[in-house]
Specification:
By secondary structure, the protein is mainly beta. The chain contains one helix and 15 strands; from the N terminus they run βββββββββββββββα. The protein is 9% helix and 39% strand. The N and C termini lie far apart (44 Å).
Length: 247
């Protein structure tokens, strides 16, 4: 399984909530691994800007994790589901940024033991976590839990997905799954999640109103600031000096 979580600051778009005490969900895209090519056999380092955008000149296949935080509203038990599309926008300057549709969607397949030390208590965190649209098109990505039938206990915290008390294999922010993009390191473009919908479960075990989410975005192709270029130049000069001394 190629899923991983690495600390990273990232750009976050606030969710637009409906009127009333509706819960909120903030979705984010975090680049976690850079592979040399689609064989996924070689992992390469990469650098991001403070807002999570990927610096220019770092070609490869990127694993991008879909994470979220959630806050339940008054009378709500917790996060229930979300649906969204993945797409590439503003692909310019010869960037050749594109979704890796061959690899497709890689859901978080983590499990948790809802019976503690007792055997037979292992169940997936998500009841549904799939590309629910046309197979492989990354449209209609759906993640949900059977929230109406779940009672929060010390061993089963699925209702608390998106919070610091979420199941350990989901983490905080909670991991939904990963998508992959190919990039030649040139130009610029946005990976976006759009057409998002979401809902929460009420304490009466019914679904609250469906809301429109703001989705998320991640930019590939940001140019390093002049200070970054300066530091890179100093590092290169130091390396050249080391080579000369060794020679």
């Amino acid at each position: 399984m190629r899923l991983s979580l690495l600390p990273c600051s990232c750009a976050i778009l606030a969710v637009i909530a409906t009127f009333g005490n509706a819960g909120t969900m903030t979705t984010m895209l975090v680049p976690s691994v850079r592979y040399a090519d689609s064989t996924f056999s070689t992992i390469l380092p990469f650098n991001v800007a403070n807002e999570g955008s990927v610096y220019y000149g770092q070609p490869g296949v990127y694993q991008v994790d879909i994470l979220f935080t959630a806050t339940a509203g008054a009378g709500e038990k917790g996060w229930a589901n979300t649906l969204f599309d993945a797409a590439i926008e503003f692909n310019s300057g010869g960037s050749n940024l594109n979704l890796d549709l061959l690899t497709g969607y890689s859901p978080n397949s983590g499990t948790l033991d809802i019976n503690g030390a007792s055997p037979g208590g292992v169940t997936p965190i998500y009841g549904t976590n799939i590309d629910a649209g046309t197979p492989g098109d990354l449209k209609g990505l759906l993640a949900s839990i059977a929230s109406a039938t779940i009672n929060t206990t010390a061993n089963d915290t699925r209702n608390l997905l998106g919070t610091p008390q979420a199941p350990a294999n989901a983490g905080y922010p909670s991991l939904i799954g990963s998508i992959f993009v190919n990039w030649n390191g040139l130009g610029g473009g946005f990976l976006v999640l759009n057409n998002q919908q979401l809902s929460f479960t009420t304490t009466a075990n019914t679904f609250a109103n469906t809301q429109t989410g703001a989705g998320a975005w991640l930019f590939f192709g940001i140019t390093p600031e002049p200070t970054t270029f300066t530091l890179m130049g100093i590092a290169m000069l130091g390396g050249l000096g080391l080579v000369r001394r060794r020679g």
